Amino acid sequence: MFTIPDISDGKTTMIQTIGAIPKGSPNKRNAWRLLKILLSEEIQSNPNALFALFPINKTAIRQYIINDAFFTEAEMDIVDDTESYLKDFDHAIFYSPLIYTYVRDNMMPYITGKKTYEECYKKLLNTLELYKDE
Fold it and tell me: Mean pLDDT score of the chain, rounded to an integer?
């Protein structure tokens, strides 16, 4: 759990999962109702119902933390600190899982010491060039 420092001295969080209503959806009203349910405090505060790392509904964060772990009264400062930390960001980014996979797969030989940085970086740029228009 960490926030990424950005160039403006702020903190950036990464969006890993998105939900949307397709433009051509035959029943936009029901799709909207489903999104409202998924974003509700009741669902967002329940770690067993939420299929994400952390809730995006800020009002559900505290209860999510409490529900996800067992805290004694003396440990509530941990809940306070964690809640504060999770709410403290200035920007959000959405990265493409496909690009993440390319970066990971192409740079891992450098990280593990099997290839030089230049070799891995060159292969990564080549891969990105090949797939940039897809």
Answer: 87
What tens digit of pLDDT does each residue of 82-115 get? 899 888 888 888 877 888 899 999 999 999 999 9
Instruction: Give the integer Cα–Cα distance in Å for 114 and 67.
Output: 43
Beta-carbon neighbour count of residue 5 at 10 Å?
10
Instruction: Give the pTM.
Output: 0.60
Tell me the two tokens of residue 1: 């759990």
Average pLDDT over residues 70-87: 87
* Six-digit token string for 131: 């797939």
What number of other Cβ atoms are within 10 A of residue 127's Cβ? Answer: 16
Could you please report the per-residue DSSP string of 25-54?
-TTHHHHHHHHHHHTSHHHHT-TTT--SSS
Convert 92-105 to b/e letters by CB count within 10 Å (16 or more is b): eeeeeeeeeebbee
C-alpha count within 13 angstroms, C-beta hemisphere, residue 18: 11
CA–CA separation, 11 and 63 (whole Å): 23
